[in-house]
Every structure is written in C-alpha cells, then in structure tokens.
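Regression report. Comparing outputs from two consecutive submissions.

Submission 1:
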Amino acid sequence: MANPGSSGTARIGLPAAASILFTRNLERSRTAGAPGTALAPTLRGAYRIMRTDEVDAKDVPLSVDQRNDIVATGVAAATRSSGDSFQGTARKAAKLSIADAPVESFSDVKDIIASLPAKKAMVDHDPLITTDADSDRVTEEQRNIGVDAFIYAISRENDNDFHLIVGRDPKLRPPMYMTMEVSGLPARGDASFAQLKKVRDTFKDFFGADLPGASYDFYDPPIPIKVEGSLFFDMSHAHGQRPGPPSLHPDMPVIWEVHPVSDIVFEP
C-alpha cells in the first residue's frame, strides 16, 4: 500500500494532510512505436496523485467503507453513474452547449475571474436564471475563454462531469482557482456532441487507469494545460457553500465556471 502524503506545506494548492488516503504516481500511458521498438510514454511529466476524502459541500461525504477501500486498494470511490452520458438536470441546456462567440485569450486565471460579472448581478438577473433543465445561456454566458493554467485537483460527479479545479501558475501569488468541467456527453445528435466527446476522450486518455472518482484527487506538481471553454454561472451554488474541495475554498472566489470545456491540451 502506498503511504499517505505528508503535510501540505511544500507548496500552495495541496490538500489537508489528514484528508489524504492514498498516494501513487500517475502511470505513464504508452503508445506503440516503430516495429521492434519499445512503447513510448505519452506523458512528459511525472505527477504524484493524492487521493483524498474531500468532496464538494453539496455531496455526500465518503462512507467509512469507501474511505477504508481507498486506503486498502487505492481505487477511487465510484460515482452513481459510470458511463459517459450526462446524467444531470440542473441547467442542462446551458451546460451542454458551447457559446456562440470568439475565444477570448487570457494569460492568467486571475484575469478571467476579474472579468466576470458579480454574483449578485447574476442571482438577480433579468430574466431570472433558474436551475431548470431548459435554462439556457444568458447574454453574460455567451463568452468563450482560453487560458494557460494548471490542474490542481479533480473529482468525478454523479452527473458524469469531471470537475477540474484549475488555477494560476503555482509560483504566482495570491493563489486563485476556479472550476472547469469536462462535461458528460449530450445526445449523439446534439450540435456539441463531437467537440465534447473529443475533449472527454483526450482527458480520459491522459489519465488512463488513474481517473478520479467521487472524492478529489490532487496532483503534485499541478498539471499544466491549455484550455478553452464557455463561461457558465452555477446557479446551483448561488446559496450556501461554494463548490470545490474544502482545502482550496479560501482561494476560489467565484461560482462561475468554464462549462463545458471545449478544448484541452495537456502539457502544452
């Protein structure tokens, strides 16, 4: 069994030490080379996975049995759904659409966050934004962004979205993170299906057998990415605690997300 990590004081963006149940290195996926040659690794970096018991505030905490299973086997806790199709309802129309807008390029997650409308303006929006399945994008969400950033943590939600906690370069201060989601897939005939499937396939290929589960996996060092996607206001979290792992809540200032991610490049 791998030993849980030590105190998360080596750098910003690490989980609370007590939350770490299992650690391992991210396995390098391999691709076939020329005939007679060894398989070549597709990953350039080396990352330590810290599998924790941290979950979003709205989610059910891991049970004692789930925690014990992770400690004993390292296998991520399963979510209610295991396929690739989107299984949620809240703002389904908006979540599964890609904004009809050019991509705005940013060099820092902090600058994206600074460009977002205030929470109160969105909660009091006219027309009212609901959590109904047919709640589509409002004008403020008709924006696509692109940014070079880092993945600090990921969990898999019951609706089959992968919930990425994406932040600034770890050398920059203050730390700052926001949520970006690799979406569960719409119906095959939907306009966004092909693009969202391409993103999801790229994501799953990178992590291979080390996909996260119902609780957050953290990564050391954080994984560099180039990402694009549509801005989305998470009305489900307009009241109560923000989404994301408790260890990073103090540095997650908005409930805005990039949802869905429409393009992702690992280790650009």
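Submission 2:
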Amino acid sequence: MISDCFFRSTRPTLKWSGYFPAYDALLEPYLGKPITLVEVGVGRGGSLQMWRFFFGSAVRIVGIDIDPATKQVERDGFEIFIGDQASPKFWQWFFERVGPVDVLIDDGGHSNLEQIVTVAESIPHIQDGGVIIVEDTHTSYMDREFGTPHPYDFMHFAAYIVDLINGRNPDVTSAPKDSRQFAASVYRVES
C-alpha cells in the first residue's frame, strides 16, 4: 500500500491521506512493470522515495521542479529536471529528452495555469494505458490565493475534457471541437 511506503520514506513529504486509496487503485496495475513515472514537484524528494518503495528499483523515476536545489535528490538515483511546468517550451524540451511516460503525477505548483499546461502538454506523451494524476485540484475553488473560481480554472478544463470525451458519440452535436486530439487520447476522467 502507498500509505506504508509514505511512512517508510526518510525524506520529508506531504500527501493528503485521502490520496492513498486513490493511488492504490490507480497505480496497482503498474506494479512489477518497467514503467517511467514522472512527478512534478520534487521538494525534498520524499514522494520520489515513496514511489521507489512502492514500485521497486526497476521503475524509472523522474522528478521535475522549478528549484535548482532539488538536483541534490539525484544522488538517490532519481533523474531531476529543472523547469517551469507552466511553459509549453519546457514540456517540449522535457519530452524530447525523456520520451513517453506511463505515469505522470502533478504535485508541483497548484495554479490553474500550471495544472492546465502540465496536462495539456503531457497528454500526447503518455503511453497507451497510462495515467495523469493531478493533486490538489481543490485550488480551483480557492479564491484568495489562486484567483478562482474562474472560467479558465483547472476544474473547468477537466470538464472540457469530459465534454470532448462525450462528444465522441456521433449523436452528440453540441460538444466542443477537439483541436488537440484530447478526446482521442483520454479514456476517462476521475475525481
């Protein structure tokens, strides 16, 4: 269980306890498989260590952070890339170096722009059957720090993706147009 791995971690990390059952359900199918896992938001490396405990040493674990000091976590066997998750150019550069990934977890900056750009730029690079997990989507409801709710917050973006998925049905005529092929790539959205 992920919660056991969380408590084994010797590096500091924060995770809402309510995430653990969701992680167990979403990530169990990847156990024992040679996957590439990317986590945005390295901090002091505690969650990267948690993923290593959960998946084992055969999994490639890559971290992304805006703070260059997080490069020190590389000494524990992780790959660390420094960049701004709100920059499409960063994502292009990143995926040119890393290639496709199986699991992407966004626990980086929690602004709407950061979450939306991360998902939008990553979808084309997720392996078939892969998963993107965005933590802390509650920030879409926090008006003081994040300027939301707003028509362009992350939860509205997620609803847009659901609209695109529903628009696959040929009888649906009012769904938005999919200019980036999200509907063809996304199987489901869960909350």
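Expected: both submissions complete independently.
Actual: both completed, but the second showed a warning that disappeared on reload.
Relevant detail on submission 2: Residues 2-149 form a domain with the Rossmann fold fold (CATH 3.40.50.150).
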